[in-house]
Design brief:
This protein is mostly beta strands. 9% of the residues lie in helices and 48% in strands.
């Protein structure tokens, strides 16, 4: 299973980036691009979506939650991200490191850890195929 995820992520990382925005998050300073979207043939009703998330220096996304069905695996491709999920301590993940979110998690902090370098990460969602909104901003 781990090898399959690694192979899938390696393939996603080499895909061309298509100019399709995954969500309209007008209150954030990120760029989110859908790079992969495929129904899982062996798991009816589920899809896998790869999103390239880019933060300019000092960029961030406001506190948010993801679709209730979403399991997310993210790997940092460039730079570093500050992340706080639920009431866990804030952590910094650097290029080559990864983290995950389970359905229902609250992403309280998602920000570039640098004021001078960009951050890029690949976020892979396993989500209900009919899910239209992957991210919902909250009012914290």
């Amino acid at each position: 299973m781990t090898l399959s995820i690694f192979i899938a992520l390696s393939i996603f990382a080499t895909l061309p980036v298509f100019a399709a925005s995954a969500n309209d998050l007008s209150a954030d300073t990120s760029k989110v691009t859908l790079v992969f979207d495929r129904a899982l043939p062996n798991v009816p009703g589920k899809s896998i979506k790869g999103l390239l998330v880019e933060y300019a220096p000092s960029g961030s996304t406001p506190a948010h939650t993801h679709a209730a069905s979403a399991f997310i695996y993210a790997t940092v491709l460039e730079g570093a991200i500050r992340s706080k999920i639920n009431d866990n301590p804030e952590q910094v993940y650097h290029a080559g490191e990864n983290f995950f979110e389970v359905p229902g998690d609250h992403h309280r902090v998602s920000a570039n850890a640098s004021d001078t370098q960009p951050m890029r990460m690949l976020a892979v969602f396993v989500v209900d195929t009919n899910e239209e909104s992957l991210t919902t901003l909250d009012n914290e």
